[in-house]
Write a structure and sequence with these properties.
This protein has 176 residues and is an alpha/beta fold. The chain contains 7 helices and 6 strands; from the N terminus they run αααββββαβααβα. Strands 1, 2, 3, 4, 5 and 6 form a 6-stranded mixed β-sheet that branches. Strand 1 and strand 2 (81-91) form a beta hairpin. The relative contact order is 0.13.
Length: 176
């Protein structure tokens, strides 16, 4: 609770009042509960340290796989559009575009196969620990989603980081 109050910038003294009120609403005898402001402050400080450590270790030392697909004009000069998928990896403060392969259609399985093939070309398949994706059914579906296929193929649990912005569409549109 102290962490939630910290996120909305309630001062320590105000947090003491809020926690006391919640404890009373939950049926606790407020006269028998000690709520020192310094204890709340220490708890808030510990909560601030944990995310910073987790973020630093996860983002900077763990490769994350990013992908997003888009219908684009074919680069052969024909007026047809083709499905392409941008495959990127981030880690150690670096970002690298691994490839933009053409896929038959944007099913979860085909997206996953394109990602895995690209990872194999670079020899980094087993280093991936997280998946960054847009929250479409083709990515997140429990049976036919790209995440499910990738996680199953890599044979270890992945952190799924769903992004609501279609950043890769902008990258692909600029390239093609």
């Amino acid at each position: 609770m102290a962490g939630a109050l910290d996120r909305v910038n309630i001062p320590d003294r105000g947090a003491t009042y809020v926690i006391g009120t919640v404890a009373k609403a939950l049926g606790h005898d407020i006269s028998s509960v000690t709520l020192p402001r310094n204890s709340i402050r220490r708890s808030r400080f510990r909560n601030r340290e944990k995310p910073a450590i987790v973020e630093q270790e996860f983002i900077h030392n763990t490769p994350l796989l990013h992908w997003d697909g888009k219908l684009l004009p074919d680069i052969t000069g024909s007026k047809e559009t083709v499905d392409r998928i941008a495959v990127l990896v981030t880690g150690g403060g670096e970002e690298m575009l691994l490839g933009v392969p053409k896929i038959g259609c944007s099913t979860g399985k085909q997206q996953a196969e394109a990602c895995l093939t690209t990872l194999d070309e670079w020899g980094i398949r087993q280093q991936i620990r997280g998946l960054v994706l847009d929250a479409t059914v083709s990515n997140t579906g429990l049976k036919n989603g790209a995440c499910t296929f990738i996680e199953h193929s890599l044979d270890h649990k992945m952190a799924w980081v769903a992004c609501r912005h279609r950043v890769m569409e902008l990258v692909l549109a600029s390239i093609f």
